[in-house]
Write a structure and sequence with these properties.
about 45% strand, globular, FlgD/Vpr_Ig-like, FlgD/Vpr Ig-like domain-containing protein, signal
């Protein structure tokens, strides 16, 4: 069933894991007047909801699998793991005797991991394998909670809050080759919460501040060597998600941090293959997870503002900024996934869009079909609507960092006279950034944060104003103090 891959490199099939995974259930339409579906009401009221929080979601070819803290799904007994066939839930045998935090398609079946000692009545220490009919243990398992799973080079990778795997020392990260567990030599000094393949490597994120490759909160393994291409992050990473926007894909990190590799980021950041970039102004609280739906990026967590705007628990990145999904979720989002025309949400909540939705929800809102801007694509793909466009990156900006203004100048050719200036909250111009003819198209202009007299502007809110051929657009820029280093 498994191939021994410790001594050979196998071309891997990328599998996105941690708390957010791409899924695919099919269910009936949304309730009239709402983008949120009303069918996941509590099982006690006859709905198809669950009786406890969802921690993980997985699609296995049209069937949705949910894992978490529940024991009842849609009125049937389902101990911590169940599958949704589009109209009702079905159990995975007798399930597990404790919480399932992570799910992964692997070896022709499904691996479930979390905090449990039995799976289907069989002894299984925090990780188990479902072959479609029965549960089995994976060796001696691990001695603590598993938070994330991934498949890499034919190996099953587990990360979490354990120190041993199969009876051998394996601090916070271990690999299973089909016969035994072994340590990967990461040298981590703290918990692992997130795993994702990226390019030819495995990205590992979490709470750690030291590793053999030098990574802080995030590190990378190519199958033989640990390295730190990403740069340090100043707070814990809870999720890693690939965002397919080109070659290479972006790698999106979610968590509770403010700085990623020197860039100002608020709980969410995107890696473009060489640098970290903020995704708008980010969130005002923990971002647990992210997922791609119709090419758009969605994020979920324990926040109520995104880009300073209302976004209860879940938000959509439009390419220009974050938007909430109606009235959102009344609790914490721990998992997101996409299937066909719907976005699925799991977590610790009882309402979605103001309707009863017991720990799982479905959003059927319309998503624009154009491809949004990625972390380093600026306005290159902004819609040609005849108006100038303006984006500031990073935003907010810290200390003495520079801001890059990304401009789209409309027209069929030639030049336009462009004026770009920065104003304070009283409407006074503090910096003239640009005042000259420029060709139609997209441009990037850096501003070092200084005023017209050369002084560095203090922290606060400012407004950048772009004027092109009589048309005006503005964007808000937040200047913050020096970075706050989290421990």
């Amino acid at each position: 069933m498994y191939a021994n891959a410790r001594s050979r490199v196998i071309r891997f099939t990328a599998a996105l894991v941690v708390l957010c995974i791409q899924l695919s259930p099919t269910v009936s339409g949304a309730e009239a007047g709402s983008d949120w579906w009303g069918g996941f009401a509590p099982p006690s009221s006859g709905g198809q909801g669950l009786d406890g929080p969802v921690r993980a979601l997985l699609d296995t070819g049209g069937i949705l699998i949910a894992g978490g803290e529940f024991t009842n799904a849609g009125g049937i007994s389902a101990n911590h793991v169940a599958e949704w066939n589009g109209s009702s839930w079905e159990p995975f045998g007798s399930g597990t005797d404790g919480t399932v935090t992570s799910l992964l398609s692997f070896g022709g079946g499904v691996v479930a991991a979390g905090e449990f000692s039995l799976a289907g009545g069989v002894g299984a220490s925090n990780v188990a394998f479902w072959d479609g009919a029965a549960w089995s243990a994976l060796g001696g398992g691990v001695n603590g909670v598993v938070e994330a799973l991934a498949s890499f080079q034919g190996l099953l990778i587990a990360g979490g809050r354990f120190t041993e795997a199969g009876g051998v020392s394996a601090p916070y990260l271990a690999a299973w080759d089909g016969a035994e567990w072994f340590d990967l030599g990461a040298g981590l000094n703290g918990w692992v919460f997130a795993l994702s393949t990226y390019g030819d490597a495995l990205a590992v994120g979490g709470w750690f501040t030291s590793s053999n490759g030098g990574g802080i909160r995030i590190t990378s393994w190519d199958g033989s060597t640990w390295s730190a291409p990403f740069g340090p992050v100043n707070g814990p990473i809870w999720g890693l998600t690939r965002w397919p926007l080109g070659s290479p894909d972006a790698l999106v990190s979610t968590g509770f941090f403010e700085i990623s590799g020197g860039a100002a980021t608020n709980s969410i950041a995107a890696w473009n293959g060489s640098d970290w970039y903020p995704v708008g102004g980010g969130m005002n609280g923990l971002a647990n997870c992210a997922a791609s739906h119709f090419g758009r990026l969605f994020a979920g967590g324990s926040f109520d503002l995104a880009d300073g705007l209302p976004a209860a628990g879940v938000a959509l990145w439009t390419g220009d900024g974050w938007e909430g999904l109606g009235t959102g979720i009344d609790g914490h989002v721990r998992a997101l996934t996409s299937h066909q025309s719907s976005l699925y949400v799991g977590g610790d909540f009882t309402e979605a869009g103001g309707m009863p939705s017991s720990y799982i929800a479905r959003w059927d809102g319309q998503v624009p079909s154009d491809v949004p801007d990625g972390p380093d694509r600026g306005p290159d793909r902004w819609a040609e609507d005849g108006s100038p466009r303006l984006l500031a990156v990073p935003n907010p900006v810290r200390g003495g960092e520079s801001v890059e203004f990304r401009l789209q100048l409309p027209g069929d050719g030639g030049e336009r006279h462009v004026r770009l200036a920065v104003f304070d909250v009283h409407g006074r111009q503090v910096a003239a950034v640009l005042d000259r003819p420029m060709s139609v198209g997209t441009h990037r202009i850096r501003w070092d944060g200084s005023s017209d007299d050369g002084a560095v502007l203090p922290s606060g809110s400012y407004f950048a104003r772009l004027e092109v051929a009589g048309q005006v657009t503005t964007t808000k820029v937040e200047r913050l103090g020096a970075p706050v280093q989290k421990r």
